[in-house]
Amino acid sequence: MPDEDYRPATPRDLTFRPATTADLPALVALVESAYRSEESREGWTTETDLVGGPRADEAMLLADIERPGSRIVLAERDGTLVGCGHVTQISPTGAYFGLFAVRPSEQGSGVGRQILGEAERVAREDWQLATLEMTVLNVRTELLAYYGRRGFEPTGESQPFPPPGIDGIVVLRDGLHLVVLRKKLP
Ligand SMILES: CC(C)(COP(=O)(O)OP(=O)(O)OC[C@H]1O[C@@H](n2cnc3c(N)ncnc32)[C@H](O)[C@@H]1OP(=O)(O)O)[C@@H](O)C(=O)NCCC(=O)NCCS
């Protein structure tokens, strides 16, 4: 007999809010765990074998929190941080999405899809923007396919990797560059 009080944890239990300075330590830890750490191998996609060095530090994220037209979105379940993404306005009609991370043990269950949906909502509804752009390393074919299924298309542009002016990145594979993707927001 089904227990009517039982409700499995699903992505629907997520809540979203903008990050504040108080979130910085937990945010840096989340991003490091998802992108380039050994723990990130638990997830379905990682850049551990491609890039070394820190992905984000508190000073960089503090600037992203404080800059007008820039919002770091946190996804929480029962008050625990499970994922994040950063939306920032880059033109009169467009926003950029980055810092996309989900705790490795939570990946693959739709949390990322919901964060992306919230980022699109922020750009479209809160800021009245028409497009969302992102950049992805050219060799991360599984991620390019994932974004393609979310409606992001290559613009044909590419950008150098590491990006100029960013220190501390260790490139572990030749031939890396960033592919620019864009989605027209519905
Ligand atoms: C990218 C990331 C944020 C996505 O979050 P997530 O919660 O895992 O994403 P979802 O659960 O919404 O989606 C998982 C997708 O991976 C697919 N997937 C699962 N296992 C896979 C595998 N072994 N190979 C390829 N795709 C796989 C699923 O089919 C699903 O896609 P679909 O919804 O189109 O079917 C998360 O994986 C992450 O933090 N990665 C490390 C940091 C990173 O690379 N960030 C992006 C930089 S551009």
Range of strand content: 25-35%
Strand order of the biggest β-sheet: 1-3-4-5-6-9-7
Q: How many helices does DSSP assign?
A: 4
Q: Report the CATH superfamily.
A: Gcn5-related N-acetyltransferase (GNAT)
Structurally, the number of domains stands at 1
Residue-averaged pLDDT, rounded? 94
Structural class: alpha+beta
Q: Total strand count, please? A: 9
Describe the model.
This protein is an alpha+beta fold and 186 residues long. 25% of the residues lie in helices and 31% in strands. It has a single domain, classed as Aminopeptidase, CATH 3.40.630. The chain has helices at 24-35, 58-66, 111-126, 141-149; strands at residues 15-18, 51-52, 70-77, 80-89, 94-102, 131-137, 153-160, 170-171, 177-184. It starts with 14 loop residues before the first strand and ends with a strand. The model has no long low-confidence stretch (mean pLDDT 94). It binds coenzyme A. Residues 34-35, 40, 43-47, 100-102, 107-113, 136, 142-143, 146, 149 line the site of coenzyme A (COA).
